[in-house]
Specification:
The protein has two helices and eleven strands; from the N terminus they run E-H-H-E-E-E-E-E-E-E-E-E-E. The protein has helices at 16-22, 27-35, and strands at 6-14, 44-48, 56-62, 68-74, 80-83, 89-97, 100-107, 113-121, 124-131, 134-142, 156-159. It has an eleven-stranded mixed β-sheet with strand order 5-6-7-8-9-10-1-2-3-4-11. It starts with 5 loop residues before the first strand and ends in a 7-residue tail after the last strand. The model is unreliable at 145-166 (pLDDT under 50).
Length: 166
């Protein structure tokens, strides 16, 4: 069983612009993300509790602009309200399926469902995103950075407990 706890750096993406379009991101936001190579070499993750079967998983994402977002997930399959990773609020649920952590997010209003599947493939952490028949991937390599998360003002912390909450 693979444990994806640790620090990771985005090393590749597949089909991100089409996926961002499918989740309703504006042309301007998609072009800005493309200008940052969709985070390749710039977006980092720190994962705690990433061992299959863990009840609590915390993912801290640092985007190319330096903004940090913390997501605390309960992997019991019970839905909770959160801000969506691509805007808007909705309900999220997370569970383990074997070695993969699977999360669904259902947007309020239009009911669009966005699926996330996080799993180790070899020595890479793959995050597969899908919605409306469109699939994209972010591929992460183990981070060799000393500290990709230097201390600064508090990050944008989001969890099932502090927001009505990604």
């Amino acid at each position: 069983m693979g444990d994806f706890s640790g620090s990771w750096m985005c090393s590749g993406t597949e089909n991100m612009e089409e996926f961002m379009k499918a989740v309703g991101m504006s042309w301007m936001m998609r072009k800005a993300a493309a200008g940052f190579s969709f985070g390749v070499g710039k977006q980092s993750l720190r994962v705690t509790g990433g061992s299959p079967g863990s009840a609590d998983v915390t993912i801290v994402t640092k985007d190319p602009t330096g903004k940090e977002t913390t997501v605390a997930l309960k992997t019991d399959g019970v839905g909770f309200k959160m801000e969506g990773p691509f805007g808007g609020s909705g309900e999220a649920k997370a569970t383990w399926e074997g070695d993969a952590m699977v999360q669904t997010f259902t947007k309020e209003g239009d009911g669009q469902v966005i699926n996330f599947r996080r799993q180790l493939v070899g020595d890479k952490l793959e995050v597969t995103l899908s919605t409306q028949g469109i699939t994209a991937k972010r591929i992460y390599s183990s981070s060799s950075l000393q500290n990709p998360f230097p201390a600064h003002d508090s990050p944008n912390s989001l969890s099932a407990g502090n927001l009505a909450a990604e």
